[in-house]
Each structure stands twice: as C-alpha cells, then as structure tokens.
Amino acid sequence: MSLPSASSVARPHRKPRLDPRSLALIEASVIPMGALLASALIFSLFLLMLGKDPIRFFSLVWTGGVASSFSIQNTLQRAAPLILTGLAFAVPARIGMTLLGAEGALVLGGLASALIAIPMMLGGWPVWLGLPIMALTAMAVGGAWVGLAGWLRHYRGVNETISSLLLTYIAVAIMNFLVEGVFRDPGSTNKASTMPLGPDWRVGDIPGTSVHWGLATGLIIAALLWVLMERTTFGFSARIAGGNLRAAQAQGLPVGRLAVASCAIAGACAGLAGFFEVAAVHGQANASLAAQYGFTGILVAFLARQNPLAVVPVAFLFGALAASGGLIQRRMEMPDATMLVLQGIIFVTLLTSESLYGRLPFLSVSQAGDRT
Amino acid sequence: MTKIFKTFRAPSLETLHMSKSFGRNKALDDVSLKVAAGSFHALLGENGAGKSTLVKCMMGFYEADAGQMMIDGQEIRIHSPRDAQALGIGMVYQHFTLVPCLTAAENLVISRRDIPMVINWKSERQRLDAFMETMPFRVRLDAQVSTLSAGEKQKLEIIKLLYLDQRFLILDEPTSVLTPAEADEILGVLGEMALRREVTVLMISHKFREVKAFCDSFTVLRRGRFVGAGDARRVNAAEMSSMMIGDVGMRPPATRLKTIQDGPKLELRGVSTLGDEGRRVVSDLSLKLCSGEILGIAGVSGNGQSALIEVLSGQRPLSGGEIKINGAPFEPTRRNFDRFKVFGLPEEPMRNAVVPRMSVAENIAFRSFDKPPVLKRFGLMSSARMRQRGMELIQQFNIHTSSPDAPIETLSGGNVQRTVLARELSGEVDILIVANPCFGLDFASVADIRGKIMECRNRGAAVLLVSEDLDEIFEMSDKISVMSAGKISDPVSTLATDAMRIGKQIAGQTDEIVAGPQAE
Ligand SMILES: Nc1ncnc2c1ncn2[C@@H]1O[C@H](COP(=O)(O)OP(=O)(O)OP(=O)(O)O)[C@@H](O)[C@H]1O
Ligand SMILES: [Mg+2]
C-alpha cells in the first residue's frame, strides 16, 4: 500500500475513552432529559402566570401517577396503549417515514375487533378462539390501513405524513358512521356503541393487579420490535433505506417492500392497541376509542428517540401524566386542556433539542452536525 | 462586526497555531498558514490531512480549539460563516450550494445578507446586469441552475462570492467536477484577478498540474501538521508529493496482464431511460463487455452517463431495452447482484453508496449483512462479526478512521471512497461498474484505487468505467467509447486511438467517426 500507515488506524489506544457508540447513547439520553427538564420549567412559568403553584402541580402528578398502588395501576393502564402507539411511530421512523396514522389504525382496529366478535359470540364460539381472532383482525385492519400510506408513498409518491393523517380522519369518520348507523346496538342509548362484548369475552387483568393484559403484550412487542429493528437483517435494511435511499437501491434492497412492511407493522401495533381498548377497557367500540392515544404515541416515540425499548419508560411517564389529569383538574381547578398544554410544550422543546445533537462539547465524537 | 475593508483590495490572511480535535482524533495540530495579499495559494495534503478542517475553521464552521487568525495583520475572531462573510472571506465548497430550482440571478440575490423582505426584481436585475459587466465570466442569469453545466455552476459559485464582495476566496477542490478546459478557464481568470490584487485565493487541490500552472505559493499539511510551505513556481511536483506523503515509495502504476476473455459478459441491448424531467437521457444504447477487459466510457458529464450507471445499479428504471449477463436477462436486484457477482463504485459515494450516519463497520457490511457469517439463524445478525470484518478491512484497505464505530460522515472524502472500495472489492468480482472513482482523491490514493480496479480486471472481471478524466480512461481502458447526448459510439481499441481523436469526438465532431478499420 502506498500510503504511510495511518497513526490512527486500529492501534490500541493508550487512553481508553468512551467509544462512539456509548457516547451516542449518552447523547441520546442526556438531550431528551434536558428537554423534559426545560419543558417542566417553561410549564411552571405558565402556571405561575395563571397564579397557580407549580410545586403543587408536580406533587399532584406524583400523587395521581405513582404515589399509591391505585395510581400506579391507573398509570400502567394508560401506558399500555401508549407503548403500542409509540411503537407505531418509532418503527417507520427508522426507514425515514413520519407516520401520523396510529390513531386511525387504533380506531379501525378496535372497531373491527368489536364487529368480528358479534357473529362469534352469537354463534357460540369458544372464547379462547374468539379473542385471538379479534386481536388478529384488529392487527390486520390496522396494518392494512397504515400499510396503504406506505404503499401510496412508495408507488405513487404521495407524502406519507399527509396521507396517514388524512387516513386517520377518514378512519374516525368511518367508525362514527358505522357505530351510529348499521352497527349501532339498540341498547346503547346515550352513547352510540356497537354490541357490547359478553362478560367472558373480555380480556382480563394481569393476576394480582387491575392492569389488563395489554400492558404485558405491549412489553413483549416492544422487546420483539427492538430485536427486529436492531438485530435482524430487516432492521438493518430499513436503516439503510431510511438513511440513504439511493444507497439502498444501489444495494438492490427491496425499498418499496421495506417501506410498506414497516408501515404495516406500525399499523398492526396500533390496531392491537385498539383491540385492547375494546376488549379490556370499553367492552364495545364507540367514539371513546378516539382518545388521542395515537397522537400522544408520536410524542412518546420522539422522546424515546424511536428506540423501541425506550418507548416503554416514556409511555409510563405519559401514562402518569394522563392518570393524574383528573386529580389536577379537580384539586387545582384547571381545565382539561392543561395537560395538552404541557404536552405541546414538551413537543416543542423536544423538536428544538434535536438541533443539539453533535453539538454538546463534552460529547464531541463528531461534529457532523456542523456541516453544510 | 464592521467591515475592515470595503475597497476592492485583496487582503492577506494568516492563521497561527491552529488546533482542532474531533474526540481523540487530532485533525489539526498547531498549524500556521500564511497567505500573502494577492497571492494564489495552494493548500496540499493527502486525503484526511486536515485541509478541509483548516478552511472550515477559518470560515467559522468549526470552532478551533486553539489558534489565532489575522487579516491584514489585524487579529480577528470568526465564530460563524456570517462573521467570515462580513469580513470578506468566502468559500466555494466541494459540492454545489446553489439552489437548483432557482435561476442564477435569483440565487445571487437571495445569497445577500441584507436581502429585503420584498424584492424588487426589476431594479435588482438592472444592478445585477451592471455587476455582471464587470465580471470576467459569463453565466446565463435567467437559466435555472439545475440546467447549468458543472463548469457554469462553479463559475456562478465564484461570481456569487464576488457579488457578496468577498475578496478572500477559499476554494475546496474547485476543479474536481470540471473538465481540464473549464478548470483552466476559471483558474486562469482567478489568477489574473489575484495578479491585479483584486482577490486573494486559497485553493485546496490534489492536481499538481493546476498548482504548477496557476499558484504562486503553497502550504503542505500531513496528518494534521504543517510540514512546509514554499514558492509553487520553484518547487516541482515530485518535491511537493514527497512533502505530502513523506519518503515512502509510490505504488507502481497498475500493470495490465494478458487475460482470457471467456468469463462473464455484460451486454446492454437498446437500453433507454428517462431522466428526472421525463426527458430521454439514454436512448437505444447497446454495448458488450467481456471478462478481463475494461471498457472506458469517455465524455463530458451530463450526457447520460449518470443515468446509465443508475440503470445498472437499480436506481433508475429501464424504459426500454434489456440487460443481459452471461446471456441471461439481468434485473438489478440484490439476489442478482450476488448471483452474478456484480459490484459497483458509484460516483459521489456520500450520495450513492454510503449511509452517512451509520458507522464505518456497518457501511462496510452492506454487501454481507444478510449472508453468513454475519447472518445467523432466524434473520438475526451478529454485530460482533460485522465489527470484526470491518476492522479487518479497515486495516487491509488502510482506511483512516478513529474507530470502526465512528459514523462514516466523519471521515475525509478519500477515506469514504476507500470504505466503499473495501466493501465492493474485497470479494470475488465478475462485473464491476465504476463511475469517476478518483474524484477528490490524492495522487497516492488514485494510484492505489486504479491499481485495485486493474487487479480486478486481471483476475477476469468485466469492468465498465465511466469517467470524465481522459487520462484515467487512457490509463485504464482496453477499449474506449464516447458518450454524448445519451448515445454511445462504437468502442475503439485504446491502442488504435489517441487522446486527440477522442477529445475531438467528445467535443462533438462525431462525423468523422473513428470507426472503420480501427474498430477491430
Ligand atoms: N466532523 C468530523 N467529525 C470527526 N472527525 C472529523 C470530522 N471532519 C473531519 N474529521 C477527521 O479529521 C481528519 C481530517 O479531515 P479533513 O476532512 O480535513 O481531510 P482533508 O484533508 O480535507 O481530506 P480530503 O482530501 O479527503 O478531503 C480526518 O481524519 C477526518 O476523519
Ligand atoms: Mg476535504
């Protein structure tokens, strides 16, 4: 070789410093934490302006979210769908797609599982067969719905963010149309709903808790998706395609199929969340399905830096915020929307903190962010 | 920050004891550089020597860890490119920074710092026309930038700096995308301006020919350190190169061995494809490529070469015709790439061949991640084996990186190219598709990479080489074709033609085609 051998190449380093991967990991934790702290400060200012006591607010979040076993279970209950919808954003983000379709997939998935349950219940099918069929139906419908956004993106060049958002509106409209129309249960007088599931057709709680099985399922799926995205050829291909589409094409990777598959996985996660909302929480499909879990999931995934494992603790955090919402509303006499304000602030600080990557001096592996 | 000089006068510029580290990698170590007013100064050094880092520190893109900067003997501090612009220091980057969908005129006007909220295009346009009268180059102001040739774009980049009143011009490898004629025109004009003391120029270049022809002084960096400076007219290229790499011998030029041409064959029949605007950019193109030979395709860029390469590498769909390998129809899918052992070195590796944010080891694994030994059961991958293989190839191909886990975007241009080379040439190759493989590489790497491609040919690969560099075409090819306006001429044996004839053909005098008896 003609070049003088580089002094920097693969030589044992005298001063062992953190390798780039650990530095990147630290960076990916420090920055979102900082953003959270900053949003807490900004929100405190907001409260002060309203003449409310921020300390009281945060202590109520503590009380309502984690202090008692009741509040913890309340938190976990709300975290369950957030894990799944968070994953629904995180997986396609790896391939560079910003999908806002989780809410729609959740709603349609929930609706589909409630509807397919009706003939099975009437036909006297065994529950052990019926519930898995309901879950699979929810996943298939959710997967197809969001997969459509992926297909439109790849084969028709339609922006996936817009199409998935519009698909969400359509999904909610379809649900309302069907629930208030053909599939309305005559018994549902004040809130139009589908026929309620029989008591034995409900998904139960994890023994010893009042938290339904959706949480355990969410944990397992998060672990599986982490393995899928970090350790398999599928995840690796998706990262190549998400990082540089032209390079992925030149490697002969099936970029179209990868995109559609990622979207379908996302939709299936959200659909599954819908199934648990129906079979474990509401017992029927109605407008309560559209409870913004799909949109909060976006925030969850953002804060977790699209890492499927990190989605879990972040979902707990947002679950706690949601769980304490009622308490705060009552004790501090603040409107319902307060929590939305907090979420909005978190979102904006998070987006702002994105610009910090590669610029923290004590973490300077690379300053690639400085490039033009 | 105030303007120190408003007059059209070339400033002198000096950096003193500049240092800059990225993590534990010392990219600049106590570098001092002195550029006299009105000089045309060359900054030399092998790939990864720290040239780009030095000028980016001068421009305020990077904050230097230590060091001073002086303009006309006065100390200045630059924290951002805005500061540099205010002081009259401007840079032309290695890649274009113009907005392709705007016209040349629009690009100039929006680049100003004092751009008004509402632009009065009519008066701006009059002022621009008046300004262009004073310019040494002509550029079509009304043309959309995406339709300009590389040379015109580069001229526009330079005009932009002058329009912004910048009198210290930093050019990072400005000629790598230009033909020699274009390069000579632009550098010639800048040289005259420097002589008239209208500008001072600092140019990073790997081309000794240009340095000897246009520069008056030079500085050499080696592995982040200053190793010397001098008068470019008195020091010869050999001395400069030994300053750059130290006293290690050059690799001898690639030797061409006799090959038997009965191995793999690539055949294109009537291939057509559409460009991004829906125009036909390659039309009815046919060629035949045998094992153990290099077919060089010469021509000015923008004549369909990129589209041809994109078709072969699966980045652009075929609109007509067929591709055959060993007589079997070939579709550019991953399975077929592996089955027929097709490999590629595309141009602009950052755009076409690597994922900037993924690590060096991961980028090296793009061909092998879905096969054993990296692939284990159930689609699972072994990242340990991937990293291990990465380290081996980093050693073997002499890639300068701080770690196999460093993102590839932190490597210097030449080392990115080597990483791609390591990935594509480390196995058995039957068909190799190469486009402008030596853009932006230092002379040692050029020799190295050409050697590797030649070795591939000698081992029996069929090589398609698209290049704008005629010297490269003549050094490497067994046969030469010329591409223009999406069509390709019949291949001619390299021994049966010469640079003059091919050059003429490129310039469009295709009537007296070099075919006939020589074609055999
Ligand atoms: N953003 C960055 N982060 C980390 N390391 C970097 C970064 N930019 C450059 N380096 C390192 O600094 C060294 C010098 O790189 P630089 O780009 O200045 O080289 P160069 O002389 O311009 O080479 P070339 O001729 O290949 O463009 C290299 O070892 C490179 O890996
Ligand atoms: Mg450089």
Describe this structure in words.
The complex is a heterodimer of chains A (372) and B (520). Chain A is mainly alpha-helical. Chain A has a domain at 71-323: ABC transporter involved in vitamin B12 uptake, BtuC (Orthogonal Bundle). Helices cover 69% and strands 0% of the residues of chain A. In chain A, helix 5 runs antiparallel to helix 10 (255-282). Chain A is globular and about 65 Å long. Mean pLDDT of chain A is 84; it is low at 1-16 and 365-372. In chain B, strand 11 (266-274) and strand 12 form a beta hairpin. The longest helix of chain B is centred in the middle third of the chain and has 16 residues, at 180-195. Residues 1-7 and 509-520 of chain B have low confidence and may be disordered. The termini of chain B are far apart. Chain B has two domains: 13-96 and 166-248, P-loop containing nucleotide triphosphate hydrolases (Rossmann fold), CATH 3.40.50; 264-506, Rossmann fold, CATH 3.40.50.300. By secondary structure, chain B is an alpha/beta fold. In chain B, the strands form four sheets. In chain B, strands 13, 16, 17, 18, 19, 20 and 21 form a seven-stranded mixed beta sheet that branches. A six-stranded mixed beta sheet of chain B has the order 6-7-8-3-9-10, sandwiched between helices. A four-stranded antiparallel beta sheet of chain B has the order 2-1-4-5, covered by helices on one side. The chains are: A mainly alpha (372), B alpha/beta (520). At the A-B interface, helix 1, helix 8 and helix 9 of A face helix 10, helix 13 and helix 15 of B. Adenosine-5'-triphosphate sits between chains B (22, 25, 27, 45, 47-53, 400, 410-414) and A (366-368).
